[in-house]
Amino acid sequence: MKPTFATYIKALKNDIPSSIVVFLVALPLCLGIALASKAPLFSGLIAGVVGGIVVGLASRSHLSVSGPAAGLTAIVSSAILTLPSYEAFLVAVVLAGCLQVVFGFAKAGIIGDYVPSSVIKGMLAAIGLILILNQVPHLLGDDSQFESDEGSSTPVAKGNVFTNFFNAFGNINSIALLIGGICLVFHFVWEKFVSKQKNEFVKLIPAPLLVVFIGVGMNLLFKNSSAGNLTGEHLVIIPKANSFEEFLSFFTTPDWSQIMNSKVLGTAVVLAIVASLESLLSIEAIDDLDPYQRVTPTNRELKAQGLGNITSGLIGGLPVTSVIVRSSANVNAGAKTKMSTIYHGTLLLLCVAFIPNILNLIPKTALAAVLIFTGYKLAKPSLFKAYYKKGWDQFLPLVITIAAILATDLLRGVIIGIVVGLIFVIRSNFRSSVFAIVDGNSYLFRLRKDVSFLNKPIIKNRLEKVPDNSQVLIDATQADFIDKDIVEIIEDFMLHAPLSNIDVTLKTNPTNDHGFSKRILEGNHKGANLIRTIEKEIEETTNV
Asked: Which of 88, 167, 308, 352 has the fewest CB atoms below 10 angstroms from its CB?
C-alpha cells in the first residue's frame, strides 16, 4: 500500500530521530569516500544531500538510503586521474544517470531477483565485518585512513582494511580509546536495557544519538584535563565557507566540451552498470531487513538512482548508489518511512551550510562506536549458526561470499557467491530431476521438474548400466520440460534396447509429449498394461 500524508505524519516520531542518526553516520562517510576517490571533499557532501533528498523523493523504497559509495571509489579515482579534468568526470556521472533511467524503463531491475538469499545475507555479514575492521582503528584513535561503507582489501588510502586494522594497535590514543570504549559499551547496554522496557518513550530514544552526545560531552570535559582532549584529525572535519559566495564556489558544473570523449563515454557505461548492480543488491538486502517486509519496485529504483546521478553530476557531486551501512543504520534506529532518508539529506544540507563548527566537535571514535555496533548487528554469530543448520548448500555460499568480499570488493565478491550458489543449484538439479528405483531386474526412472541438458551425463550413465533381460519403465509424466538432448538419449536407448532383450516402456503426459517421436509413442501404447504392472510391482516393493 502506498503511504499517505497521514502515514508520514504518524511516523515523524520515528523518522526524525532516525534521520539524525543516519546524518551522523553519513557525514564522515561522505567526506572519507570523497577523499578516497581523489575528489574535492565537498563533492562527497553534495552526493550525500542528493542521495537523501532527490533519490529519496523519487524512490519508492521505504528504508533505503543513497549516497556516495565506497564500492565505486576505485572506478571514480581511476577516472578522475585519467580524464582531462574533474569537470569532464562530471559529464560521465550525468551520462551514467541517463543510462540508469534507460535501464529502469527497460525493466532491468529484475536482475536483483536472481541473487540467492544466502548470498545477500553473506554480503550483509561481510559488510558488517568490514565495518568493524574499518572502525576499530578510529575507536583506538588512529584516524589516518578514510572511512568506508563496504571497504576493500585492495589499497585505497594508506594501506588496506587488514593492515590498517592491525597497524592501529601500534597507534593507540588513550583518550580516544577511553571515549570510544565507553560509547561502545553504553550502546550495547542501552540496547539491552531498551529491549526489556515497556515504556514507549524510552524506546523512541535512539542509542546512536545518545552515543554521539556522550562522545562530544566527554571530549569537552577532557579539554581542561592534563591529558588533553581530541583535536584535529580525531574530529569530524567539514569544509567551512566564510561567505555565501565562497559556499557557492564549492559547487562545480560539467565540462560539456568533453561529452564525445571516448574515455568519458566508457566511464559513464562502467559507472552506470556497477552503480545499478550495487543499488539493486543493496535494495534486495534492505528489503530483507525491513521489519514490515515491504518490497521496493526495482525498476523505479533504477530510475530514481539515475535521476540522483544526473542531479549530482550537474552540481559537482560524486555518483550515488543505495548504500547498505547507512540503510541498515536507518533500520536499526527505528525508521518507518522514506521520509527519514529525505530528512537526513536535508540535515546534511542545512548543517553543512550553517553550523559546520558545531559538527566539527564530534569525535570520530564516537561515530566508530555507532558503526561497530551496526557491523555487529549485520554479522551476528547467530546468523552463521542458523545457516549451518540449513545445510551446506546454504552455508557454503554464505561463507564464500563473505570471504570473497573481504578478499576483493563488494561486486566481485557477490558475483563469486552467485557462482557458488549456481553450482549448488546445478548439483541439486542433478539429484532431483532424475529419480531411480531398482527391484531385481525391474527399473523405474522417473523424470521430474525441468530436465535440462545438464542432466545428460547422469541419465546416459544410468541407462547404460541397465543389464540385459531387464524391464525398464521411464516415467515422464511429472516433467514440465525435457531438453531435446535428453529426448534423443531416451529414444536411442529405446531403439537399441531389444538388442539386449531389454523391455522398455515410456510413460508420458497426454497433454505434453515433450517432443518424443511419433514412432516411439505409437509403439509405446502396446505396452500400456505392462506399464501399470511394472510400476505397481516396483512401488509396492519399495513401500514394504
From this structure: 167
Q: Which of 204, 251, 212 shows the shortest CA–CA distance to 235?
A: 212
Contacts of 184 (CB under 8 A, 6+ apart): 139, 369, 372, 373
Residue type, 63: L
Task: Identify each DSSP E strand in 271-347 by its residue range.
Answer: 321-323
Contact status, residue 94 vs residue 310, Cβ threshold 8 Å: yes
**Residue 442, helix vs strand vs coil:** strand
How far apart, in whole angstroms, are the C-alpha atoms of residue 275 and residue 411? 10
Under a CB-based contact definition with an 8 Å cutoff, are residues 177 and 215 in contact? no
Tell how strand 65-67 and strand 321-323 pair up.
antiparallel
Q: How far apart, in whole angstroms, are the C-alpha atoms of residue 329 and residue 375?
A: 9
280 against 243, higher pLDDT: 280
| Cβ atoms 309, 72 nearer than 8 A | no
Burial of 105 (0-12, 13-18, 19+ CB in 10 A): exposed
Residue 505 pairs with which residues in a beta bridge? 473
Q: Annotate 200-240 with DSSP letters as a single string.
A: HHHHTS-HHHHHHHHHHHHHHHGGGSSS----GGGB-----
Average pLDDT over residues 383-401: 91
Task: Taking each helix axis as running N to C, give the angle between helix 73-82 and helix 12-36, from 0 to 180 degrees, rounded to the nearest 10.
Answer: 40
- φ, ψ for residue 363, nearest 5 deg: -70, 140
SS3 476: strand
Q: What is the largest CA-CA distance in the chain?
A: 101
How high is the pLDDT of residue 234? 87
Most confident of 428-432, 438-442, 540-544: 438-442
What's the pLDDT at 524? 60
Q: In the predicted model, what is the mean pLDDT of residues 53-66?
A: 96
Q: Could you give the strand order of the β-sheet that contains 434-439, starting from the edge strand earlier in sequence?
A: 434-439, 442-451, 471-482, 503-507
The identity of residue 441, as a single letter, is: N
| SS3 state of residue 202 | helix
Domains, the chain, with CATH or none: 5-390 (no CATH), 440-542 (3.30.750.24)
Band (527; pLDDT cuts 50, 70, 90): very low
Give the Cα separation of 434 and 429 in Å (integer).
8
Q: 471 - beta bridge partners? A: 442, 503
Q: How far apart, in whole angstroms, are the C-alpha atoms of residue 88 and residue 94? A: 10
Bridge partners (DSSP) listed for residue 435: 446
What is the rounded CA–CA span in Å between residue 473 and residue 463?
Answer: 11
Q: Would you state the cell numbers that stand for residue 463, as one nine-digit string?
A: 541407462
| Rounded-to-integer distance, Cα 27 and Cα 235, Å | 12
* Predicted TM-score of the model (pTM): 0.69
Tell me how many degrees the CA angle 237-242-247 measures, rounded to the nearest 5. Answer: 80
What value does the mean pLDDT of the chain take?
Answer: 85
- What's the gap between Cα 508 and its chain centre? 43
User: What gap in Å lies between CA 279 and CA 206, rounded to an integer?
Assistant: 27
In this prediction, residue 432 carries a pLDDT of 66
